[in-house]
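Chain A, query sequence.
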Amino acid sequence: MLVKLSTDKTVTEAAAALQAAVQANHFGVMQVHNLKETMNKKGVEFNRECLIFEVCQPQQAKKVLEQDMSVSTALPCRISIYEEEGKTVLATLNPTTLLAMFNVPQLEVVARDVENTIVKIMKEAASD
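Chain A, predicted structure.
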């Protein structure tokens, strides 16, 4: 259900590599949430680095949404980059697992394609 990859890169380096890999694989970054910054602005002390990238491939999203608009609750795909035990981790929930919750079997091929690309993007971003 969860894909996690670790890298020796810093969170900042991994974020830059992820941006490039997303674009190289014909996805787009819709938003980046900086959890540490957001929580600190809200008066909550949180010292760990965590960036959450919302990524999307519009043609694939359209295929899914044309079948079942309720799947919009699971979109866009997210890739988190955070520090854990001295390493930088890239993590995402498997689109195939998420989509299975909606019981729309005809979307399995789309979910698998998206999942394969997301994992490829993460591997590219994590590699040295």
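The longest strand covers residues 77-84. DSSP finds five helices and five strands in the chain.
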